[in-house]
């Protein structure tokens, strides 16, 4: 089972490490590099309408699943207690999304942060 480390941050580092889920409570967002190794950065806003993050003191869980269909790899997976589980089928993935309105990772937040820094 592949795992992620989590790290609570104030500012997004310029270079993201593979296998680390960076969480900014201040900006209500999390960011990590796609777990397939493609190098794409996945931003998951945390809000009642987007992702929900839970932290049990040791590990974090993100819901719903992460669907990177805007990347070439089209990877989709769940992060549960820092463990990555790949969705076994698109059906499984889509049925979870049907319960909520469709949400997808955004890259906007990262761009905003980078612009502010300069
Ligand atoms: Zn990927």
User: What can be said about the biggest beta sheet?
Assistant: 4 strands, mixed
Mean pLDDT score, rounded? 82
Give the names of the bound compounds.
zinc ion
Uncertain parts: none
What is the count of DSSP helices, taking H or I runs of 4+ residues?
2
Secondary structure topology:
Elements: E1 5-8, E2 20-24, E3 29-33, E4 41-45, E5 52-55, E6 60-67, E7 76-80, E8 83-86, H1 90-99, H2 108-117
Parallel strand pairs: 1-2
Antiparallel strand pairs: 2-3, 3-4, 5-6, 6-7, 7-8
Residues 34, 36, 38, 40, 68, 71, 73, 75 line the site of zinc ion.
What does this structure look like?
A hairpin with an 8-residue loop joins strand 6 and strand 7. This protein has one domain (5-110). The strands form two sheets. It has a four-stranded mixed sheet, covered by helices on one side. Strands 5-6-7-8 form a four-stranded antiparallel sheet. The protein has two helices and eight strands. It has helices at 90-99, 108-117; strands spanning 5-8, 20-24, 29-33, 41-45, 52-55, 60-67, 76-80, 83-86. It has 118 residues and is of the alpha+beta class. It is globular. The chain is 17% helix and 34% strand. Bound molecules: zinc ion. Zinc ion binds at residues 34, 36, 38, 40, 68, 71, 73, 75.
Structure in a nutshell:
This protein has 118 residues and is an alpha+beta fold.
List the keywords:
118 residues, alpha+beta, 4-stranded mixed β-sheet, 4-stranded antiparallel β-sheet, 2 helices, 8 strands, 17% helix, binds zinc ion
């Amino acid at each position: 089972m592949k795992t992620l480390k989590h790290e609570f941050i104030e500012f997004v580092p310029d270079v993201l490490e593979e296998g680390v889920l960076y969480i900014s409570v201040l900006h209500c967002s999390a960011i990590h590099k796609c777990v397939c190794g493609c190098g794409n950065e996945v931003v998951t806003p945390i809000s009642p309408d987007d992702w929900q993050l839970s932290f049990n003191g040791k590990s974090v869980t993100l819901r719903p699943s992460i669907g990177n269909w805007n990347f070439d790899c089209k990877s989709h997976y769940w992060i549960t207690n820092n463990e990555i589980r790949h969705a076994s089928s698109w059906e499984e993935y889509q049925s979870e999304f049907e319960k909520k309105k469709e949400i997808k990772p955004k890259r906007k937040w990262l761009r905003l942060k980078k612009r502010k820094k300069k």
